[in-house]
Structure formats: C-alpha cells, structure tokens
User: What shape does this take?
Amino acid sequence: MTRNWLILADDLTGAADCGIAFARRGLEASVGWHGVEAPLGGAVLAVDADSRRLSPEAAAARHAALLRARHRPGQGLIKKIDSTLRGQPAAELAATIRALRNDGRPALAILAPAFPATGRTTLDGRVHLDGEALEATPLWARDHSYENAALTEILASVDLSSRLLPLGLMRQGEAALARALRDAMADGLDAVVCDAVLPGDLDVLARASLPLAGQVFWVGSGGIAAALAAAMPDGHQAPLPSPASLRGGVLVVVGSVAEASRAAAERLAAEAGAPRFEVPPAFLLAGPADPLWRPLAASITDALEAGRDTLVVIRADATADLAQGAALAEGLAGLLGPAAARMGGLFATGGETACALLSHLGVHGIRLLEEVEPGVPLGITQGAIEVPVMTKAGAFGDAGTILRSLARLRHLSTESAT
Assistant: This one.
C-alpha cells in the first residue's frame, strides 16, 4: 500500500490542509507552489496550482501540466478542491482524468468534498455548510462558479459520468462500499459522488477505497486526506518536531473577506491588543507611488521588531472586484516585504495572500509540522528565510481561531527552547 502521495490543490491553504494530515501520521510532508521548481523532500508533496481565479480552460491546463510533471507511478493521488466549490473544480477534475487515462492509468475519481470538522458536509449529493444548503449561504452569494451545489450535475456540465453513493450506502460498511466502487469501475464511470456527514463516514470510505489506490484517486478537501492518512496500515499519531523559539512578533495577515476571518481579526485586536493596520484595496493597487506607502511599511516593521504580534487587514470593500485577488495579494506582499523580513512567524488567511508574500521573501516551500486546530496547519518555511508559518482558509474557524493558534505557536516555541 502506497506511502507516497501527490496532492494537487487549487490554492496554498488547501494544499497545506491536506498535507498536514499525513505529517501527523509520521510521513514527511512539504508544500510547494506553481512556478517554483526547487526540490522539496518527503513522502508527501502538496502542490498549489494557484488556479482558483483562472478560467476553466486555464485551470484545467495548469493541473494537467502539474500532474505530468509531478506524478510518479506508485504514488497515491489526491485532487484537492475547495470544500465549498469555489474556483474550477469540475474543469480541473476532468483534466486530471484525461491526463491519467492518456498515460494508460485507471482513473475512477472518488469525489468526497466533505470536511465535517470544519462544518462542510455532503448529503444527497449536495454540499452543505454548517447544516445549511451551500446555495443559501453568504459564501455562495459572494463567490460561486456553478448554478447549484449538486455534485452530479456539476460533473455532468463537463461531460463526466458519475453515480451517487448515498449516506445509507456509506454506512453499510467497508465491504458494501468496496463493491460499489468496483461496480462503478466495471461500468466505466468517471466518478462516484460520496455523501459524508460525520468524520466516521470518510473513515469508512478511506478504508474501503485505499486498497484500490492503483485504480482510483480521491477528490476532496482536508477531510478525505485525514481519513486516508489514518487508514494507512501504520497510520498512527506521530510526535512532530517543534518550531524554534520566536525571534520577533508574529505577522498576522488577513486577506480574506470571509466573515470568520474578519471576526477573528477583530477579536485579536480587541483582546490581545495587537497593533492593527487596515489597508484599502485601492491603496494596494496604487503601490509605492502612494506617499503613505513607505511610512505604513515602516510602522508595521517597527511593531514586529518590538516583538508585538501585528495584524494587517485588507479593508472590506463591497465594490471590490474579486477577480483582482491576485493583484491585491501581490500589492500586499510588496507592502509587507520589509516588515516580513523582521517577523518571528506568519499567520495568513487566504491562499493567494500567503503564497504571494512567501514567494516575495524567497520562500519556495513549507515543511509541515502540526495541525494547531482543524484547518490550521503549522509549518516551517524553506528557502531564504526559515520561520514558523500557519495558514488558514478564509472561511474556516471562528472568532477565536487566530488567538488560539498564536497561543499554540508560542507554547510550542517555548517547549523547543527548554
């Protein structure tokens, strides 16, 4: 049974969410990203394709190219998608299936996007968030790619054939699930869509499907990655190394507009007294030409050098164009470059934000160490600087997530120093 895995993700936080599941089970896991070819060690490689804001055609082409460049015979494969279906998961999945079959590899996709630990579930083949139909949530209203969250319909829109494995079947046990998977392969289907409401549903699916690793691959989020890692024969919880003691304040960057991240930022400022710097989108797009650019960058640097955890937030703007996310992330990376060189650690929400900032600093990867709470992995940067880094998808967590994560990081770094 394979101990080597490739995880293809559409953003950095998702890549880290999946990779950390294997690190917690004793496998060395690293995260890299599109456009950086530096070698990364470990049995598990998670690669951020940085494709969420691309067109369906461009996203598909990028995933196919990364698969050809990175996937090796004998590796397990996870195609990580956003648990709330943002980006272009259907086009990316179709491209992945075509690339595998062009290489003569069997390619039944097991689609299981649920991540119950973070409130994402699948019932009757439809995605739900905290028990509510995804289409009824503010997240869907703000950003969605499809008419609805019915997974078989989304797959059909890119000409993929699929079959629903409903919750009742999922709970009949491993033998029944294994038969259903083999039937799907025999029928020549492209994918099966798997209901899952509890973590145990994904655990049973992982145990039933892992023996078929050479004939199937998995499509989902951190939930299915955790279940697969736990289902491995030696999938025990392993002690992980701790980060070195912090050398300065932690830079907390909130580039996401999601309500959970905004609430966590407000609580950090209110309860921990973290210096708070709010930057408008227009300011970031204007860049260093703005006369306030250098003074603001200097103030952020001063706070970090003083050892203070420092919060930088992109101001919410209802008129902002979500398609400008990459440009805003690059602008923020330019603003924070001088300050980040002085930070003791980084906490970043939003994959584009974290990737742009780390790349700006000469970082080419992250070695994963620990999951400080569901959806918040901790690692050490690899490249020009080595500092602890925590990433979080924008909509994950609650108002206390950042505070708890920083407390955990300081506890670990204190342990390392003693």
User: Anything to note?
Assistant: The domain at 5-231 is CATH 3.40.50.10840 (Rossmann fold). The mean pLDDT is 89. The first strand starts at residue 5 and ends at 9.
